[in-house]
Amino acid sequence: MSDYYNAFEMSPVPDPGPAAVPPEPFLGIYGMPAFATIPTSDLAASVDFWIRGLGFVELFSIPGRLVHLRRWAFQDVLLVPASVPEQTPAMSLSFACVLSQVDSLVESCRALRPDSVDGPRDTPWNTRDVEVITPENARIVLTAAKPFDPASQEARNLEAIGITAPDLGGGENEEHA
Questions:
Q1: Is the peptide bond before 16 cis (omega within 30 degrees of 0)?
Q2: Nearest Cα to 76, choosing from 109, 126, 111, 35?
Q3: Secondary structure class of 59 (helix, strand, coil)
Q4: Residue 115 · residue 68 · CB < 8 Å
Q5: How many whole angstroms separate alpha carbon 120 and alpha carbon 169?
Q6: Are strands 127-133 and 66-70 parallel, antiparallel or unpaired?
Q7: CA Rg, the chain, in Å?
Q8: Contact 133/116 with Cβ under 8 angstroms?
Q9: Secondary structure string (H, E, C) spanning 44-100
Q10: What is the rounded CA–CA span in Å between residue 162 and residue 11?
Q11: How far is CA 120 from CA 27, 28, 99, in A?
């Protein structure tokens, strides 16, 4: 028996594939299980980039103190006025997207900040990723799952670390439903 089980029903991320449709921005209020607080020296410019470039919406703001942004459920960012490091930090923050969004996100970010985008590139763990450096020097990775092919090298990579293809028929993980 595995300690892992299929819990995709908890996630707003749709099944991977070229026809996957992204969910609409989630406007409900909930207890946030995780969020990022990102300092910015220009709140208006940052809000503009996150909305027009990265596809977030403004959930609410406290003028001059905080702007709460969100894409899908559980993709929350708080922008706060503060000094910004001159160098981009090594760490990154990743947000799920779908394959059909990758090109338009790249175009939107490059239109606002031409040198802000690296990628897209395919990963050994079966995603297509785009790295974006925001006006605050935050390193944001937009990551889209590719369709899973059990015969692919990516499937073999995942299996080598103990992650096997999901059993869509239930099986041993049914007790966790």
A1: no
A2: 35
A3: strand
A4: no
A5: 34
A6: unpaired
A7: 18
A8: yes
A9: HHHHHHHHHHCCCEEEEEECCCEEEEECCCCCEEEEEECCCCCCCCCCCEEEEECHH
A10: 22
A11: 28, 31, 10
Dihedral sign of CA atoms 149, 153, 155, 156 in order: positive
Q: Which two tokens mark 41?
A: 């020296």
Do you know the residue count of the chain?
Answer: 177
Which candidate, 33, 30, 13, places its Cα nearest to that of 22? 13
pLDDT band at 167 (very low <50, low <70, confident <90, very high): low
Residue 99 burial (CB count, 10 A): 19
Structure tokens at 22: 């992204």
Half-sphere exposure of 10 (CA within 13 A, CB side): 7
pLDDT per residue over 64-82, tens digit each? 999 999 999 999 999 999 9
**What residue type is 89 in one-letter code?**
P
Q: Which residue bears the tokens 């001159």?
A: 86
State both tokens at 64: 């001059």
- For residues 168 and 83, the model is more confident at 83
pTM: 0.81
Task: Give the integer Cα–Cα distance in Å for 70 and 76.
Answer: 5
* Six-digit token string for 13: 């991320």
**What's the rounded Cα separation, in Å, for the pair 46 and 67?**
10
